[in-house]
Amino acid sequence: MSHAGDAAELHALGLLDPEERAMLERHIVGCPECLRRVGQAEESVAHMASALPWTEPSAELFARLNDVPRMVASARAALPQAPLGLGEDVSAGPAQRMTARWEAERRRSARLQLRSYVAALALVAAIVGLAFAGFRIVEFEAALRGDDIALRGDETALRLMARMPFVVLELTPQSDLAPKAKLLYARDGSWAYVLIEGNADRLHVGLTRGGKEQDLGPPVQRGDVASLLVAQPGKAQRVSLRDPSGIVASAALKP
Amino acid sequence: MGLMEAGARPSLDDRSLVEGFVARRTDAFVGLCEAYAVEMCSIAHHVLRDRAWAEDCVHDALLRLWRSPGAYLPERGSLRAFLLVCVRNEALDQLRGANLRAASELKSHGLELPATEIRLLDPVDAAQVRDAIAALPDEQRDALLRAYYKNRSLVQIAEETQSSPGTVKNRVTAALVKFTGEFARALKS
After folding, report:
1. Is B71 within 8 Å of A49 when comparing Cβ atoms?
2. Chosen from B43, B45, B63 to mutate, greatest number of chain A CBs within 10 A
3. Of B104, B126, B159, which one is at a domain's C-terminal end?
4. Nearest to A50 among B30, B53, B129 (CB)
5. What per-residue string of b and e applies to A187-208 under the rule 16 or more CB within 10 Å gives b?
6. Interchain contact, A46 vs B84, CB within 8 Å
7. Nearest by CB to A150, which of B51, B67, B119?
8. Do the chains contact at A42 and B116, CB–CB below 8 Å?
9. What pLDDT, in 10s, does the model give residues B119-137?
10. Which residue of A has its CA nearest to B1?
11. Is the complex ipTM more than 0.95?
12. Whole-prediction pTM value?
């Protein structure tokens, strides 16, 4: 490229994909004009960040960050140069890039292990909470902080699904009036998501746990599909759809 | 070197931080974490909506930067702006990658999540940012809000606004350039 042009602003707003960003980073190393334009765009976007609600980092994050220079130094000492730069380092050979990928994998595994401990703790906390509060049905958009921006329900579900394996089941019809419906749930009991095709006006979702069924209320209708995202269903045994005449479809959750 | 504490004041001034970061001094790395951790976490949390994931993301972004000597040049502009954009881009990459994987897994089950209505709320608290954004033409403001505060991609914005990706590109670019001028004006007044 002769000059980066609007790539500077698109980069600062997070609208470039990683390859385009790497190209831009390589370009600005030798182009002071574009370097300044990128810096200016980043400055403007950083101002926009001042409008976001603040999140206090945990002490654990500070401890992990504190360890970064030592980790990098020891990795450099132990391995051939294994860059994980903003773009792929074209000077690195295949073996070096492979080493970098292994290292990245190792770090990710370590994080996942840590995350599973945290998830287990969260689950315990949630179960304790449930003993007092019963099931919580969360319309996640409403659960967000008041000063936050509304998150689309499908995005919330995608975020949950993106983070862990899940099971998909079709609800078995028990009436001629039963709509086509599917149940998606995490095996760890952290969420369940019911999707119903068509109009679900008269339907309620039920959740059975410990042999007792609880009415979770009507699903949220959005166009031709209704859905309900259930937070912390725990060890639920069955999800059912009811209309005023009784259960019209249900699915048993596999333990 | 002792453990950093949340909310601790940076022990180095901005200039020393920048010089130290470029020279890859450990105390500068620790200092910039102290100085900008809240902002970095806030940005990652805003994108990922999950605190643990956001902290992982901040860690990943800083590890990546520290492994890349020369990633930041002082001529570029402020170190803070550079870091915040790096963290947000890391968060967006992780989110988009994870969403793609989840959507593809859903598709393999013959499922598609329902699209829902878009609600654009006014997300802006900071008065000058709000004023600068308010001064933008409607289409530019809408594109900028979707891109930054709703973390949409170019393709998503194009679909949501029924415009071409090229038009969206022009709108967000023009919006950010105009925002820069309006923000500077708002600060002066």
Report:
1. no
2. B63
3. B104
4. B129
5. ebbbbbbbbbeeebeebbbbbb
6. yes
7. B119
8. no
9. 333 344 467 787 888 889 9
10. A66
11. no
12. 0.62
Which domain range does residue B77 map to? 14-104
Please indicate, yes or no, whether residues A37 and A125 belong to a single structural domain of this protein.
Answer: no
| Rounded mean pLDDT, B82-96 | 93
Please state, in angstroms and as integers, the Cα–Cα distance from residue A157 to each residue in A14, A184, B165, following that order.
22, 10, 26
Which residue, A102, A134, A166, sits at the end of a domain?
A134
> Does the CB of B118 have a partner CB in chain A at under 8 Å?
yes
Angle between helices A32-49 and B26-48 (to 10 degrees): 60
What range does the domain containing A8 cover? 1-48
Say how many domains are in chain A: 3
Task: Please identify, among A134, A152, A173, the residue that sits at the C-terminal boundary of a domain.
Answer: A134
Tell whether A53 is covered by a domain. no
Dump the DSSP string for A207-224: EEETTEEEE--PPEEETT
Asked if B38's CB is within 8 angstroms of A54's CB, the reply is yes
Are residues B22 and B90 both part of a single domain? yes
Contacts of B183 in chain A (CB under 8 A): 44, 47
- Domain end, chosen from B73, B104, B135, is at B104
Co-location of B166 and B138 in the same domain: yes
Angle (CA) B25-B47-A168 rounded to 5° is 125
